[in-house]
Amino acid sequence: MRNILSSAFHPLRPRRIRRGGRQMREKRTAWVLIVFSVLLAGVELYIVYAAL
Q1: Hey, what long-range contacts does 21-25 have (CB within 8 A, 24 or more apart)?
Q2: How big is the CA angle at 31 (ends 26 and 35), to the nearest 5 degrees?
Q3: Residue 7 contacts residue 28 (beta carbons within 8 Å)
Q4: pTM, two decimal places
């Protein structure tokens, strides 16, 4: 879990794009977006419940 988050903020190292490399990167980007949105939703819920 921690690995996914830390890799999200580091720029990808430039390397030669192999066949299927693009798909891997897209999948990773999708996972990063999912994790980020879940974290955001959790923070939002926490703020809402704290305000009640």
Answers
A1: none
A2: 150
A3: yes
A4: 0.50
